[in-house]
Specification:
Number of strands: 5
Structural class: mainly alpha
Distance between the termini: 86 Å
Order of helices and strands: HHEEHEHHHHHHHHHHHHHHHEEHHHHHH
Strand order of the largest sheet: 1-2-3
Radius of gyration: 27 Å
Helix content: 55-70%
Shape: globular
Number of helices: 24
Strand content: under 5%
Largest sheet: 3 strands, antiparallel
């Protein structure tokens, strides 16, 4: 809370897309005339408007998909609505109340992490302090005061980490509690954003892996002999052990399906067209050849590196462009890369550049040469419009993750792969059974989340890529934290054992001194 509100509150400004989430509460920001642009400043106050809902709302002259977001962030917003009334804050919903609720949830996650970690006291303190330092980075915690759902992903991932550590606990009760925590937090995490849906698969593997003992009634013990005779007792035991985790996986999958099925066909076609024009064409040596393979009109090559909606409306409404968008699909894009595998690495290198600059931006169209337009990415502001604050002022008070990644700016996909492999290799090198069961499983999950989020952000949409990569950056940073603490604890324990071993070696008995010769 000190980081978020002292000396003045910080947040993330709206990029004119926040209404798709806030419309569920019937609230919106109504700015007076001559007010600075919405993306330059953070506005806390949201007022309830009559006849305003996700089906009846206006975005002004901005052409954006008007499909509302379904997100677990709504639970946080409803809790903040009650806190707004308790604290007497102005408006129907104050984003500062949302920030307080998020801080309480994050603090509870860190407290649980300290409780369930099987480390010594000093290492648990070090681990929790490092987690707080990472989450307090401006690229993560500032989303707590914003009309976006990225903070729900941050909260959900922390509780998932707690649940995975509990799954490796020594007692049956802790493992059952771990399945419950992982299942509930996994559902919250998977439904935070559509981009989080691919993370359901590694979460399902983690939930189905542990063997949770199930007490069998005495009436059924007679059937054990028959099961042993048929050699199915072991299989039956494994299935029963994973029944609880299977229920949690089914609930998560249902929630992920509900979120991912919200996007309409028109929005899906727009995001795929954005990927072709923004990400694919700038990496091509023959853009017209690529456009012909996708069945796209030739004029789209003039907007390589910019979204198609930068083109004039007449071109977007043309029959050729409409035919192109209707023929797009994820399967067709996958087939393109199967036919041209060498095109994959340039695209990944381009998206890796956004990974090293994770600050959120707005996507605009600037005027280019010969009447064409190009994509402009101004950063979203972090401060309110007070005391003559400059437009789009950035928060740099605490940004260890952002600054560290900034040192790698200009590097490509190879460096990013090393960032993912080094923590896994370090934990594997210590060769401790407990580490491989607990932190090892957690590292595997975090790296899987990072990779799946990177892939979803790279190929799902060509705009707001830095904002979509926020969760991949967080998972990578947390993987380094857990790996570093585990390696430090292992090396210290090994050094202590060596010292104890040397101290326990028996020394030879001292020989009596010889008598002096006269």
């Amino acid at each position: 809370m000190l980081r978020l509100f002292v000396p003045r509150p910080v947040g993330v400004a709206d990029n004119y897309d926040g209404v798709r989430l806030m419309c569920h509460l019937g609230v919106d920001v109504r700015l007076p005339r001559n007010t600075p642009r919405l993306r330059d400043y953070v506005y806390y106050r949201y007022d309830h408007l009559a006849h305003f809902s996700c089906q009846r709302h206006a975005l002004g002259s901005i052409r954006l998909p008007d499909v509302p977001y379904r997100s677990s962030q709504l639970l946080v917003l409803y809790a903040a609505r009650g806190l707004t009334r308790v604290l007497g804050l102005p408006g129907y919903l104050d984003l500062r109340a949302v920030g307080i609720v998020c801080c309480l949830l994050l603090g509870a996650a860190v407290g649980l992490l300290y409780r369930v970690a099987t480390l010594r006291h000093r290492y648990r303190l070090l681990m929790c302090a490092a987690v707080v330092a990472v989450v307090a980075d401006t690229v993560f915690v500032d989303y707590a005061v914003s009309p976006f759902s990225e903070i729900a992903s941050v909260i959900g991932l922390l509780y998932v980490a707690v649940g995975v550590l509990m799954l490796a606990g020594p007692s049956r009760r802790r493992r059952l509690a771990g399945i419950a925590v992982t299942g509930v937090s996994g559902l919250f995490f998977a439904t935070a954003k559509t981009q989080n849906v691919p993370a359901v698969l590694p979460l399902a593997l983690v939930l189905l892996a542990p063997a949770v003992p199930v007490v069998v009634p005495e009436r059924l013990t007679r059937l054990a002999g028959l099961a042993d005779a048929l050699r199915l007792h072991g299989l039956d035991r494994r299935l029963r052990h994973r029944l609880t985790g299977l229920v949690a996986v089914m609930v998560m999958a249902a929630g992920a399906f509900a979120v991912s099925g919200n996007e309409d066909k028109r929005t899906a076609q727009l995001t795929e067209a954005n990927f072709v024009s923004v990400t694919l064409l700038p990496t091509s040596a023959h853009p017209q050849r690529d456009l012909a393979e996708f069945g796209a009109p030739a004029w789209l090559g003039q907007y390589a590196g910019a979204p198609p909606w930068c083109a004039p409306t007449a071109l977007q409404d043309s029959a050729g462009y409409q035919k192109f968008t209707k023929g797009l699909s994820h399967q067709r894009i996958l087939g393109f890369f199967l036919n041209h595998p060498t095109r994959l690495l340039p695209v990944l290198d381009t998206v890796a550049g956004y990974f090293y600059e994770p600050r959120p931006t707005a996507t605009l169209c600037g005027v280019g040469p010969h009447g064409t337009q190009f994509m402009v990415l101004p950063p979203l502001g972090n401060y309110t419009h007070l005391a003559h604050t400059p437009r789009g002022l950035q928060d740099h008070r605490w940004s260890p993750v952002t600054d560290a990644l900034g040192l790698l700016r200009g590097f490509g996909m190879g460096t990013l792969v090393l960032l993912w492999l080094i923590p896994a290799a370090a934990v594997t090198a210590v060769r401790r059974r407990r580490a491989l069961r607990g932190v090892g499983a957690l590292l595997g999950l975090l790296l899987a989340v990072a990779v799946t989020q990177f892939g979803a952000s790279a190929f799902a949409d060509g705009i707001d890529t830095a904002k979509h990569l926020d969760l991949a950056v967080l998972a990578t940073a947390l993987a380094w934290v857990f790996a570093a603490v585990e390696v430090l604890a292992a090396l210290t324990a090994r050094a202590t054992q060596n010292e104890a071993g040397v101290a326990s070696i028996p020394r030879p008995a001292s020989q009596p001194e010889s008598e002096p010769v006269r």
